[in-house]
């Protein structure tokens, strides 16, 4: 069984009608809560046969990135990991995602990246940026549920990001095509 987790209905509007979809809202906190709730409401037996697919739009941090990507690493980019480690606490700011490309890193944070300088700084650590992927992966890993992260580049994480409401329709179409070609909804 497949559960699609996405931030907004506009990202899933072209999925087949029978697909089980959880909409989280924007940001890491909302995504963590909604994903955890959706997994906790299922019995251990239901979770054993479940796969989560986090579909959504994202910003490109590097030139020329277009289309659909499946990152193999998610990075919580707006946590002070080094400072927290210096205080003696373990921080897992990087999580592996088994099915994805291990060389492709998705940076997740609550910051809506629309500034070229912020984008360029993030590009030193990642290729793509979103606001929910890390939280969805962390929740799934806490429940031992397999997860795939699939993102479509909607913008270049600069001023063009403010056109997201218009650009997301292309993302939704391409994500639905990817889902239909790559995932069984049963």
TrEMBL record:
It comes from Dermacoccus nishinomiyaensis. The keyword Aminoacyl-tRNA synthetase does not apply. The lineage of its organism: Bacteria, Bacillati, Actinomycetota, Actinomycetes, Micrococcales. One of its GO terms (cellular component) is cytosol. The keyword S-adenosyl-L-methionine does not apply. InterPro entries: Nucleoside_phosphorylase_d (IPR000845), Nucleoside_phosphorylase_sf (IPR035994). This is Nucleosidase. Coiled coil: none annotated. NCBIfam families: PRK05634.1. Keywords: Glycosidase, Hydrolase. It comes from the Bacteria. Pfam families: PNP_UDP_1 (PF01048).
